[in-house]
Amino acid sequence: MPGTLALLHTSPVHVPVFEALRDTDHPGLALRHLVYEDLLARARDAGPEAVQGEIQALLAGAVAEGASAVLCTCSTIGGVAESAAAALGVPVLRVDRPMAADAVGRGRVVVLAALADTLAPTLALLAEEAGDRAADIRTVLVEGAWARFEAGDRDGYLELVAAAADRVADADVIVLAQASMADAVTRTVTRIPILSSPRPGLAAAAAAAH
Hints:
The protein has helices at 14-25, 37-46, 52-64, 78-82, 85-88, 97-103, 116-130, 145-150, 154-166, 198-209, and strands at 4-9, 30-35, 67-72, 92-94, 109-113, 137-141, 173-176, 194-195. It is an alpha/beta fold and 210 residues long. Helices cover 46% and strands 18% of the residues. Strand 5, helix 7 (116-130) and strand 6 (137-141) form a beta-alpha-beta unit. The longest helix is centred in the middle third of the chain and has 15 residues, at 116-130. The protein contains ten helices and eight strands. Helix 1 (14-25) crosses helix 10 (198-209).
């Protein structure tokens, strides 16, 4: 019998995305959404470690209320969330790890991010997944995209991300560093494979919640 999967978000936009993926891919899986927008703001100001204690307390509360696994959908604080697993006694997954594992096996990687603060955690994750393999990884910050996201202009945000993807050359795979970028894939014309994190991330977390 599957347990409840708690999802830690730093934006409410992720809730319908993961609800829809659950309905399509994992019917019957119980989701509990924890939305704390201020965690990202403070992680950006003072570094992800600044919110480590608060994240641990939030996740401990979710586990006490029945969560059998946790998925963090924010790339910036994903590593900090993962580190809470030992103390909580349940799996804690970051949404972008399965995507990163897939990407580093494909050759030359270009990472697109809308938020500069996401780049360092994403590069560290890719390096970790690459292990001893040499990894050719470049990054592109999508100028102006995050301002549109914060303004609630989802279409404008996704159009900028898609345009940035279409400008990528000399790559074997494009990685969308943030879960909120996933729908940009439907707006691109590039033939380079594009990886996004929500579907593989939820699949891994659903398996862990069982």
